[in-house]
Design brief:
Length: about 425
């Protein structure tokens, strides 16, 4: 969801004087449109090329069939049964031909191996009846031909194996775990703001279903291109990021939308990045939510990512959980909404070295807030005074004038009408 316009007045914007006095030459460079490693929908933006050992995919046929697209799976499903029916139809035709059932000049007393199998078409129909156990009754096997009995047993066994494998693949494909992940949502934007006097990177996650995700765990990774001291270029360097709730053996209780917080400390890859340097970097923050579906017991995983354009510095998520008539209510229309708050624009390292920056920022924010309140109160007073003056003018304009009448004696008699 797109964030709404901030409800905090523009007076909360910070002047350059609040920035750290440590002057560092900003690094400006033309930022190339970097391809995302993980799309917002969770799909991996990765292409495999020049795979020489294609036969490895056939060693795990079930996984290969499940990973295929639906149109290929349905074609393979249909062709497998059709080919097996045609293959055994040929076998039944050969059995009938070897026994002489297809000879038009056979003796009337000789019994056929399979009754009413006089052509390849009838052999094909009999093959379908045997494998799917329909049994219309027009064609049937007799005890005169042991070869036909053996072929009947073989086709039943092979047909059961084909049905089990293909139906199992269809079931696994329809019950894939990523279907459950469609109702696990992430905020469109990530924010960096101050929480408990520390700079924090925060996102919001939620579950649209009432059935819960058991043992849900959120993992964060920063992916960026790095170069080692030896000169080795790592195009996709994955760095694990510790979250506030990621304690060993502890999982989140995803009953209502939660804000996942990462404290930017010395071990964080964001420790040396200020607001300006963050916008110039090409890093990508990947968020992975894993858990077990309560209703099916299948493990699921939901993924998303945030590039630097999707990270808002100096914003905070608005509250969306309220208590209404004894029930907690979640307003998902405000799921991704943020408001602007007082946040230093320096890096977390500079904030640790000079804590006074945070104090100055909060003081400036408080002064700006007080000035804004004074302006609002003065504007309200002026508006109220204008309204009262306008009402007085209107009342004076509508007042009834006095009229003087003369009595017969000539004395004045005042009357108001």
């Amino acid at each position: 969801m797109l964030p709404r316009k901030s409800i905090i007045p523009e007076e909360f914007a910070f002047s350059p004087a609040l920035v750290s006095p440590i002057h560092r030459k900003p690094v400006f460079r033309d930022r190339v449109n970097k391809a995302r490693f993980i799309a917002k929908s969770g799909a991996c933006n990765l292409s495999h090329k020049n795979i020489r050992e294609q036969g490895r995919f056939l060693q795990d046929v079930v996984t290969t069939l499940v990973d295929l697209k639906w149109r290929f799976t349905l074609v393979i499903f249909s062709m497998t049964f059709l080919c097996s029916w045609l293959l055994f139809a040929m076998f039944w035709w050969l059995v009938a031909f070897a026994h002489g059932d297809l000879d038009p000049n056979r003796k009337p007393g000789v019994q056929q191996c399979v009754t009413n199998v006089n052509s390849f078409t009838s052999a094909f129909l009999f093959s379908i009846e045997v494998q799917v156990t329909i049994g219309f009754g027009g064609r049937m096997i007799t005890e005169q031909c042991p070869t036909a009995i053996t072929l009947l047993i073989l086709q039943n066994i092979i047909g059961l194996i084909i049905s089990a494998v293909m139906l199992g693949c269809i079931f696994m494909k329809t019950a894939q775990s990523h279907r459950r992940a469609e109702t696990l949502i992430f905020s469109r934007q990530a924010v960096i703001t101050v929480r408990n006097n520390r700079l924090c990177f925060m996102i919001r996650v939620g579950d649209l279903r009432k059935s819960m995700i058991i043992n849900a765990v959120v993992c964060l990774q920063v992916v960026r291109k790095t170069t080692t001291p030896e000169g080795e270029v790592i195009p996709i360097h994955q760095i694990d990021v510790q979250t506030e709730s990621a304690v060993a053996g502890n999982s989140i209780f995803l009953l209502a939308p939660l804000i996942i917080c990462h404290v930017i400390d010395k071990d964080s890859p964001l420790y040396d990045l200020s607001e300006m340097e963050l916008q110039c970097s090409d890093l990508e923050v990947i968020v992975i939510l894993e858990g077990v579906v309560e209703t099916t017991g299948i493990s699921t995983q939901a993924r998303t990512s945030y590039v630097t354009e999707e990270i808002q510095w100096g914003h905070r998520f608005v509250p969306i959980v309220t208590e209404e008539e004894g029930v907690y209510s979640v307003d998902y229309s405000k799921f991704g909404n943020t408001v602007k708050v007082a946040t230093p624009r320096c890096s977390a390292r500079e904030l640790d070295e000079k804590p006074s920056i945070l104090i100055q920022t909060l003081q400036k924010s408080e002064l700006s807030h007080q000035n804004s309140l004074r302006k609002r109160n003065s504007m309200r007073r002026n508006n109220s005074m204008r309204k009262s003056n306008s009402m007085r003018r209107n009342n004076s304009a509508l007042a009834v004038p006095k009229v003087q009448f003369l009595t017969p004696e000539g004395g004045p008699n005042l009357a108001v009408t």
